[in-house]
Amino acid sequence: MTLPFGDLVDIEGRRVPTERVRKMRWTYAADLQDGAFERTEFLVEVTNWQVTGSGREYNVAGPGSWRIEDNAPEVEYAGAWSSHAGNFSGGSIRLSTEPGARVRCHYRASARHRLYLGTRATFNGGSVRVVIDGVERGTENLLIPGEDVLQRRLLGEFEGGEHLVELIHVGLPGTHFYFDFLEIAYPTSELPVYPVHSRVALATDWDTDHSMAVAAERTAWMIYTSGLHGRVNHYVGALWFYELACKGYQYASAAVEFVGQPEFSQITELRIGYVNEPPEADTVIAHVNRIGDTAETIAKAFELELNRGYTAVWARAEGNRLTIFARAMGEEGNRIRITASPQTGNFFVRVSGPTLAGGVDGEWVTDTTAKPRLNRAARDWSAAYYRALKSYGLDVVAAFSMELQHADPSPEAGLAQRYPNGEPVRLSTPAIQTNFSPASREFWKEVYLEMAGILAEAGHRPYLQFGEVQWWYFPLAGSGMPFYDDYTRSAFEATYGRPMALIHSNEVDPSQHPEEAEFLARLLAEFTLDVIAHVRQVYPGARFEILYPVDVNQPAFNRVVNFPSWAWTADRFDCLKTESFTYTFNRNLDAAKRAVEFGLEAGFEPAKRSHLVGVADPASPWLKEARWALSWGFESTVLFALDQFCLVGYPLPLPLGQRRAAYLGR
Question: Which pTM value belongs to this model?
Fold first, then answer.
């Protein structure tokens, strides 16, 4: 197969523009099934891949290149603009929804260069007229239906010297023009070589685009070329790594009965379409009655026809009755319209109703019994990532929290941590915080074991992290703390012969409820030790790490129940990793320093310590926090995460020496 990007057309012969293609994604569909959907796996192998033609070179911004950020003094604004902080270049971006609003910027370049606009294309993006040195350079359309993406758009190539850039909102009122930066780039094909920091690492997260939407090998290459060669922290995520099952759904269906004796050479017909679409859009399936046909053979003929590749429906014949099922789950199938003929005479067709009916939307939940527990995408991407890291000589730990986006929140499933009023703990991730019951434990044990196998197959000695495996940190207003799922309540009562007391706040003095505090900490400890034992039955050399957030565990009750010190010891665990994002982002350096030093108090020497630092806010003192961890000689200091590091645009090499100040952006 050949894809001619210089002359690519769609199925109607229209040219497909390919001048700015940076990434291509292919989507594959599994074979249609003759029956209700059953989950299957399939593999696509692309071999003998070759890229030919011109334009294959890949350039990067070379030495001397720089960005003019949205808050730089060179940038002038006219009209109504608002500033927004976040994962943008330099940590902020400007927005205008007012036609006529403009950006002006003077700059001076020393040589011929490319000029890029950093912007954001969205589902409500507007249009921007580009004027450079008084010359109209065209219009940038920032509308991408259904999407929201940061982009770096080429505005042209220019000679060195003074230049004036003007960007004017020329879209409709209310449409968005985002201005992030201007980049003056001197292209080069030579990549810079950065000094290696063997104890500084980057973290990745499979829920984000720098993992899921990028080839694993590219992500590993980015980390390696950054020079940050410490042990990589890979969070396998909370949103997509598991299999799903639909709970409580029903497929829509219709019954078609063929009644009487078919007449030779007459036509029996089914028409299938969609509600609110014109009849001429219907699919017409006609059967010419043959000698010997019966009501039963005609039902079978329609079954065979419908099951040979129709994408909206499939069918099952039983005697003279044909049941037609929607392939789409739930209420969507109720939109399928069906009619039949003849409807009178010695032979006729009777349909149960004008549309398929009975379709009920279900609820997609994590399939905790699937084998394997990890879905194909997570397994394949992880395996490729770990192999690539191994080829660069980089170690990696795979992390799981207790969060599951699609965990069944019902009491019957027994998975969710629950508040005293019975509500499950729903997080903003979005996810359910799972509990430490046998139902939850059996699922997570297999997840950790499967990931250990993937690491081992990639050539690593398995390293697994309990990544915030914790009781949730905060009470529900008007209810209490999240210790009241059915298993925890019943197990406590069976142990102590009384109901668990109401813990209404994380600030409750644990000495007031010593049995509750001891019991909850023990459930957490037993969960982690049980997972370790399960994995080491197969991989006896597997390593394990705890990720402990010091900041959210500062409240008294949290400190006791979320760090079972008698079980979480240096002889049982290979490393204790701490984090304190809220201290970092709140600029609380004293608290951040205490967080770095926490593990030493817990008996973990520096060689068994690591610290995770949030880098999302370039104005926060995260670099100072990282330096503290390095000064203690920790095994690794990890920057969370690669996404923010790239989006904010931190310069390399990082100034990690012990100095008083470093410029990282306005």
Answer: 0.92
